[in-house]
């Protein structure tokens, strides 16, 4: 490989900048040419490609978001769009591509690799909803943002003796709700992977009140349903004052944690190593403390799994 390009695609995540920096600097270290593609696959099709050097990625390791911007691009899901992308890469003499993004972005990466472009995926999404890796870049920052919010809400919940429902991100995966709920000491956690019975949730809340608890925090993953609706159900049943907070895009922002910066730096560098070795159609992941590479086909055919023993523990500890 002689010329590597990097793009970020889909939902942004804190730590993407640290991954871009690692791809650029590791490439330069090995004497390769390296370019950044703006606005994900949309920018690739449009030719928004610019050569980067060591200085281009200075002062971004601590910044949230992505310097290369991100986009969603329906055109890239058509074969005409993909052909345009391949042609653009050929015109720029790019022979290796690093895609930083989530599940959808990896489907795009697979399509490119099937068209002969050497492509490596780096998992960047706050949801942690990818298989073949214990962590995705951005998840640790997002759960820290969430517990920061929970702690603050707890202060006012305690003072006013109120019940709060906090809705966090996670359409298909309850990772954010589960870990932030455990770490934030939420009374109840509702996630898509674990069937719950609203009646039992309400009974638990009432039991808590009977033994003198004056406030409660219920964490809801957005995939389970609207926090607002769950708040209404609780208010109707109990007659308590219930407040609902939707954390929303707050969870996507902020300076990445040390964990995310280190993970992103390692994963970005590994993507370059894989391209140098002539690999393609792989996704980088972490198992325990070791980085691994998995076939992107295998990754896309495997379901993301959540460790429900952690969910059960959160239930035990919030009894
Ligand atoms: P994420 O990567 O965060 O899951 P999306 O699902 O929005 O985000 O995907 C990002 C982009 O990846 C899409 O806008 C599209 O350009 C591309 N993409 C998604 N699915 C496919 C697919 N099946 N084939 C080709 N490209 C895809």
Write up this protein.
The protein has 319 residues and is an alpha/beta fold. The protein contains 11 helices and 11 strands. The strands form 2 sheets. Strands 3-2-1-4-5-10-11 form a 7-stranded mixed sheet, with helices on both faces. It has a 4-stranded parallel sheet with strand order 7-8-6-9, with helices on both faces. A hairpin with a 2-residue loop joins strand 10 and strand 11. Helix 1 runs parallel beside helix 9 and helix 6 runs parallel beside helix 11. The termini are far apart. The chain binds adenosine-5'-diphosphate (ADP). Residues 4-275 form the Phosphofructokinase domain.
Low-confidence stretches: none
State the helical fraction: 40-55%
Count of DSSP H/I helices: 11
Strand line-up across the major sheet: 3-2-1-4-5-10-11
Q: Would you count the extended β strands for me?
A: 11
Bound molecules: adenosine-5'-diphosphate
**Radius of gyration over C-alpha positions, nearest whole angstrom:** 22 Å
> What percentage of amino acids are in beta strands?
15-25%
C-alpha end-to-end distance: 56 Å
Q: Tell me the structural class.
A: alpha/beta
Task: Describe the sheet with the most strands.
Answer: 7 strands, mixed
Succession of helices and strands: EHEHEHEHEHEHEHEHEHEEHH
Name the overall outline. Answer: elongated
Name the average pLDDT. 96
